[in-house]
Amino acid sequence: MPQTLNKPPEDSQAWELLERCLLPFVFSHAVAVIVATILNTFGISQISSFVLFLLFLSVSLGSTLFYHNLKVTAAGKAILITGCDSRVGNALAKQLDDLGFTVFATFSNKNENNEIACKLKDQCSGRLRVLQLDVTSERDIHSTFLYVNEHLPDGAPGLWGLVHADAWVALGECEWIPSSVLKRSVEVNFIGVSRLTQVFLPLVRRSKGRVILVGSLFARIPSPVRGIHCAVKAAVEAWGNCLRLEMRRWGVDVVIVETGEYVSGSAWLKDNASLLEQARDMWTQLDPQTRREYGQELFQKEMIALERYTLGPEADLTQTTRALTDATVRTFPLRRYMPVSRGERIRALLSDHLPKPIYDILYTD
């Protein structure tokens, strides 16, 4: 039984509230200075800019907090979640079902995960539907679209939420990853996400719903051995930001939830029993010159070190599930949620703003 990862208390909700209130704070200060200057110049009033600032701030913050806590009604709304064979997708399906949504929980391979699918169905209400959906299969995508379109709740104009929780993680140095594994990672994590969204956007537009992307903090943090994962997640986030701008005219929200360490989907390197065997397969596919330059000892040492990514303690998904739920139920969701630890948040901040040579010294082994 894997142990649960013990992390410091999360403060992601405080950061989200701070982000929401930052603009009203700046706006109140600017308006207060302008209004006070005009009143004093024309001798209308001698009120100070500080008093006006407090007045405007109380009104703007009160309005912001009111709108921040508004939630949609779950009854009559449908959500499609991909990757429910992962811990993130599975936990979210249960949470949204408990809130009263009609959930279409999809599995990338329903036959292989039949036990998990049956358990999920038993733990949830009769509203939840379990479907087969391989996001790399055009046939699965269209058959799922037809099923969802025919089984929307009565009176629902379309699909309220499309949550991309499916992921396939490829680990290893960039030069070592076989082309077949690289192709699979791109197909699942990027092409599948974009194609599934294209097919379901008409349903989402009809309900003025939202598209929710489960990203990764490593889209912004360079990390050796996870280069392919960093690259595909960065591609998804860039694509999601563009989609958000395009969908504004339709009233459709596009939300990115950046998860942290250990919160991933299925990994190519799955367990310790097959780890060394997969490492040898990868090694034999390298050309002889590359094998000589790296050396057998270095290769095996780095591959064994990957166990901390595949066999590490299980992450506490409470904050991730909470962020995904907020992105679904808030009337005015944030554009980005970061349910990560304080250390991960600081690392992302330093990666964004520190000179790269200094960041590399601090965080690269």
Summarize this structure briefly:
The chain crosses the membrane at residues 21-41, 47-67. The chain has 365 residues and is α/β, with parallel strands linked by helices. Helix content is 55%, strand content 10%.
Walk me through this protein's architecture.
The chain has helices at residues 12-41, 49-68, 87-99, 114-123, 138-150, 179-206, 227-247, 272-285, 288-294, 296-305, 307-310, 318-329, 342-353, 356-363; strands spanning 78-81, 102-107, 129-132, 161-164, 168-169, 210-216, 253-259, 266-267, 336-337. It has 3 domains: 12-68; 78-267 and 318-363, Rossmann fold, CATH 3.40.50; 270-305, no CATH class. 55% of the residues lie in helices and 10% in strands. Residues 1-9 and 263-275 have low confidence and may be disordered. The strands form 2 sheets. It has a 7-stranded parallel β-sheet, sandwiched between helices. The longest helix has 30 residues, at 12-41. The chain has 14 helices and 9 strands. Helix 3 crosses helix 12 (318-329). Strand 2 (102-107), helix 4 (114-123) and strand 3 (129-132) form a beta-alpha-beta unit. The chain is α/β, with parallel strands linked by helices.
Task: Summarize the SSE layout with pairings.
Layout: H1 12-41, H2 49-68, E1 78-81, H3 87-99, E2 102-107, H4 114-123, E3 129-132, H5 138-150, E4 161-164, E5 168-169, H6 179-206, E6 210-216, H7 227-247, E7 253-259, E8 266-267, H8 272-285, H9 288-294, H10 296-305, H11 307-310, H12 318-329, E9 336-337, H13 342-353, H14 356-363
Parallel strand pairs: 1-2, 1-4, 2-3, 4-6, 5-8, 6-7, 7-9
Helix pairs in contact: 1-2, 3-12, 5-6, 6-7, 8-10
